[in-house]
Amino acid sequence: MVDAKHAEQHLNDGHEAQEQVAFADVLLVNKTDLVSDTELQKLEQRLRAMNPAATLYRTQQSKIEINQILGIHAFNLDKKLEIEPGFLEEEDHEHDDEVGSLFFRETRPLDLDKVEGFINEWLIEHGADTFRYKGILNIKGLEERIVFQGIHMLFSAYPDRLWREDEQRISEFVVIGRHLDEAWFQQQFTNCIA
């Protein structure tokens, strides 16, 4: 999955993003509605130069027919070894140590105004270093689960299904990014408790 809006930044900044493109069997260029046709063509040229063998699809909101990406028997180990002979040797596989993920969970209900303040501050302070985030929130006074997700500064939240009676109402979310301050995120999240 390639985020058309932010791909250039990730490809320029990280070996891992380049490696993922190089080894992909299928590339979904997503969020094509958020970039110009010129930007999209430039990105696709770069992706094809990095991995001419991958099938490339343009998507919006990750919508694609499932049979285009599953059960296609696209993996070919010989081709992977041509690209990187050390692919099977663990010590040759590099990762960007600056990239990590954080996971948070809270069983007490959250205050909507506090959550909005937290997310606004988060995006202002850490938006550029936050690659992906998503979660489900238990907001005091609401009977629906609130789903939120985003990439960098692009954020969306919406009511999901009703909480089931046999279900524990839990707020939880994951953040993937670079230079993430776990103590800061935990304190801000704790401050959201109603």
Record the SSE blueprint.
Blueprint (H helix, E strand, L loop, with lengths): L1 E2 L3 H7 L1 H9 L2 E5 L6 H14 L4 E4 L18 H7 L15 E8 L5 H15 L3 E8 L6 E8 L2 E9 L8 E8 L3 H9 L4
Parallel strand pairs: 1-2, 2-3
Antiparallel strand pairs: 4-8, 5-6, 5-8, 6-7
CATH fold descriptor of the largest domain: Hypothetical Protein Yjia, Chain: A,domain 2
Q: What is the overall silhouette?
A: globular
CATH architecture of the largest domain: 2-Layer Sandwich
CATH class of the largest domain: Alpha Beta
| Largest sheet features | 5 strands, antiparallel
Instruction: Tell me the number of structural domains.
Output: 2
Percentage of residues assigned to helices: 25-40%
The total count of strands amounts to: 8
Compute the average pLDDT.
Answer: 81
How much strand content do the residues show? 25-35%
Walk me through the structure.
- This protein is α/β, with parallel strands linked by helices and 194 residues long.
- It folds into two domains: 2-92, P-loop containing nucleotide triphosphate hydrolases (Rossmann fold), CATH 3.40.50; 99-190, Hypothetical Protein Yjia, Chain: A,domain 2, CATH 3.30.1220.10.
- The protein is built from six helices and eight strands; from the N terminus they run βααβαβαβαββββα.
- The protein has a five-stranded antiparallel sheet with strand order 4-8-5-6-7, covered by helices on one side.
- β6 (144-151) and β7 form a beta hairpin.
- α1 packs across α2.
- The longest helix is centred in the middle third of the chain and has 15 residues, at 112-126.
